[in-house]
């Protein structure tokens, strides 16, 4: 047993170890690359530059993975300074500064994670916590780093105040611009669908990005820092249109373009002169993006709540309709059953009568009685009355419903197979409600086969049952066309259907009936090529009072 367990666990441990190693390697590579790319106009003998996007990578890693990754952060800072600095400090000073910075940012990330900021920023409140926390952390990091450099003889006391301000703004800028971008969880498929539906927006965003980059190079060429402020216009527009994601991606792009423009333009203004405007742009865009994201989230929640309310109202109407139908049809159904029984009695012993007549009348009476019982139980269900639980053979119920539909299966040339499990236990459930569910699933399969062209392939339905712990699973597979993609996500919602004449209540009602008794219903891909619906039923009763 131990050998089996170890062999089962080791592959998973190896996968996790390989993912961790891949993440660590990718982090170090990205950190060193950004440190090298942003190593422009540094203060002598230090890593103090106007823009530090590599610190944004540090905070993104610590927020996503936790403070246990601080040793890797310290290693990355040490390696980055060794590889990128023209005159790196002595290794003792470098080790001390790397460990100090890792501890500061790990503590900041730990505090921010306690505020839920390991998730993407989605509101002005979370943006305020992020800005405040990272501003304080980068300020402490700046004071400590400069203090270490001064004590190590790399900087003079006279340079200390200016170095602290420059280091603080550079670190803060890098975190504000890059950490929210790296923390985004973008679904590529959803993003592509958005672009495909709105190509005009893509063109507009491209124009905005090109305008921002052009303004950055114009600022460098004109040597006038006042030209920086027109950059707020495209960034603000993108932030309000696409929230935090668009805001911070545009800010990162503008910062990179501006650094490149000022570095590549001879005699341009110093990068340190645009540090504070860059920081102002980043903070403004973050808050505007957070406000837009919160607005979109609120509107989405309102739409979802409205849809739920509409479905609830429709379901309530359906309940009232069921009660009214039961009341109005009760007497006609009773009379129908009486007439069928009378016809069955009168047909007995009649000379020359078709021998199938008695059996047909008996089946008609049974189905009429079942229809009346279904109507009564639906009315009880919508009134909130509990289910009538009894020991039930679930597969026997399936076989009974399938037998009742044999004539229709024969007309549609559908083969139905029931695969019984020898050790399938009885369950405590409302038999009539289970019949309703199985009947609905089988009728849906038959409707799908009826819509298929003749000779389209084999027509087969398989009903299987198997125990699963304290539950049993009943699966209904068919070889039909499957579920229409347009209704897959809302398959079990009321009034959702792909049938021209359907009301869209069958699956919704079926799932509700099962969940009311502690069960469930869901859809899976079928091995027969069509649809597969799985009914989960508890062996012991778990009747619930809330629908």
List key phrases describing it:
547 residues, alpha+beta, Arp2/3 complex 21 kDa subunit ARPC3, five-stranded mixed β-sheet, two-stranded antiparallel ribbon, 15 helices
Describe the structure.
With 547 residues, the chain is of the alpha+beta class. It has helices at 2-37, 53-65, 70-84, 91-114, 124-151, 157-182, 188-197, 199-222, 232-264, 275-347, 356-382, 394-404, 406-411, 431-450, 506-516; strands at 390-392, 415-419, 427-429, 460-468, 471-478, 520-525, 531-538. Among the domains are: 18-185, Arp2/3 complex 21 kDa subunit ARPC3, CATH 1.10.1760; 307-368, no CATH class; 388-538, Histidine kinase-like ATPase, C-terminal domain (Heat Shock Protein 90, 2-Layer Sandwich). Helix content is 65%, strand content 8%. A 5-stranded mixed β-sheet has the order 2-4-5-7-6, with helices on one face.
Summary of the model, kept short:
By secondary structure, the chain is of the alpha+beta class. The chain has helices spanning 2-37, 53-65, 70-84, 91-114, 124-151, 157-182, 188-197, 199-222, 232-264, 275-347, 356-382, 394-404, 406-411, 431-450, 506-516, and strands spanning 390-392, 415-419, 427-429, 460-468, 471-478, 520-525, 531-538. A hairpin with a 2-residue loop joins β4 and β5 (471-478).
List the helices and strands and how they pair.
Elements: H1 2-37, H2 53-65, H3 70-84, H4 91-114, H5 124-151, H6 157-182, H7 188-197, H8 199-222, H9 232-264, H10 275-347, H11 356-382, E1 390-392, H12 394-404, H13 406-411, E2 415-419, E3 427-429, H14 431-450, E4 460-468, E5 471-478, H15 506-516, E6 520-525, E7 531-538
Parallel strand pairs: 2-4
Antiparallel strand pairs: 1-3, 4-5, 5-7, 6-7
């Amino acid at each position: 047993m131990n050998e089996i367990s170890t062999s089962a666990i080791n592959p998973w441990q190896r996968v996790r170890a390989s993912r961790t190693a891949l993440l660590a390697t990718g982090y170090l590579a990205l950190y060193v690359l950004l440190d090298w790319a942003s190593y422009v106009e540094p203060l002598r003998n230090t890593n103090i530059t106007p823009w530090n996007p590599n610190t944004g990578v540090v905070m993104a890693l610590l927020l996503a993975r936790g403070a246990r990754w601080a040793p890797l952060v310290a290693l990355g800072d040490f390696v980055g300074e060794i590889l990128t600095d023209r005159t790196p400090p002595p290794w003792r000073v470098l080790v001390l500064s790397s460990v100090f910075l890792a501890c500061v940012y790990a503590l900041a990330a730990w505090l921010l994670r306690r505020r839920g900021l390991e998730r993407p920023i989605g509101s002005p409140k979370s943006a305020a916590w992020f800005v405040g926390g990272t501003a304080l952390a980068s300020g402490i990091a700046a004071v400590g780093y400069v203090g270490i450099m001064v004590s190590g003889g790399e900087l003079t006391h006279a340079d200390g105040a200016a170095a602290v301000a420059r280091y603080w703004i550079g670190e803060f800028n890098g975190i504000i611009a890059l950490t929210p971008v790296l923390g985004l969880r973008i679904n590529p498929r959803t993003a592509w669908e958005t672009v495909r539906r709105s190509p005009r927006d893509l063109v507009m965003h491209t124009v905005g990005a090109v305008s921002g980059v052009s303004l950055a190079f114009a600022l460098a060429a004109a040597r006038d820092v006042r030209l920086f402020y027109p950059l707020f216009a495209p960034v603000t527009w993108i932030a309000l249109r696409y929230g935090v994601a668009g805001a911070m991606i545009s800010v990162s792009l503008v910062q990179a373009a501006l650094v490149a423009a000022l570095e590549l333009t001879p005699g341009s203004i110093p990068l340190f002169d645009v540090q504070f405007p860059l920081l102002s742009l980043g903070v403004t865009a973050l808050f505007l993006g957070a406000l837009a994201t919160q607005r979109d989230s609120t509107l989405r929640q309102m739409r979802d709540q409205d849809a739920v309310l509409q479905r609830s109202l429709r379901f309530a109407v359906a309940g009232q309709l069921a009660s009214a139908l039961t009341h109005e049809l009760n007497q006609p159904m009773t009379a129908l059953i009486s007439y069928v029984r009378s016809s069955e009695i009168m047909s007995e012993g009649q000379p020359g009568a078709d021998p199938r007549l008695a059996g047909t009348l008996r089946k008609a009476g049974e189905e009429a009685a079942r229809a009346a019982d279904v109507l009564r139980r639906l009315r009880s269900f919508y009134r909130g009355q509990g289910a009538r639980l009894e020991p039930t053979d679930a597969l026997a119920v399936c076989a009974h419903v399938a037998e009742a539909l044999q004539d229709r299966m024969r007309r549609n040339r559908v083969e139905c197979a029931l695969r019984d499990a020898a050790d399938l236990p009885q369950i405590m459930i409302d038999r009539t409600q289970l019949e309703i569910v199985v009947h609905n699933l089988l009728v849906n399969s038959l409707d799908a086969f009826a819509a298929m062209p003749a000779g389209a392939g084999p027509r087969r339905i398989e009903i299987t049952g198997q125990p699963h712990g304290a539950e049993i699973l009943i699966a209904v597979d068919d070889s039909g066309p499957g579920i229409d993609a347009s209704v897959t996500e809302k398959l079990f919602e009321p009034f959702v259907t792909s049938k021209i004449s359907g009301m869209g209540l069958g699956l919704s009602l079926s799932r509700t009936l099962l969940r009311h008794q502690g069960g469930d219903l869901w859809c899976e891909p079928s091995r027969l090529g069509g649809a597969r619906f799985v009914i989960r039923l508890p062996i012991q009763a778990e009747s619930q009072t809330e629908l």
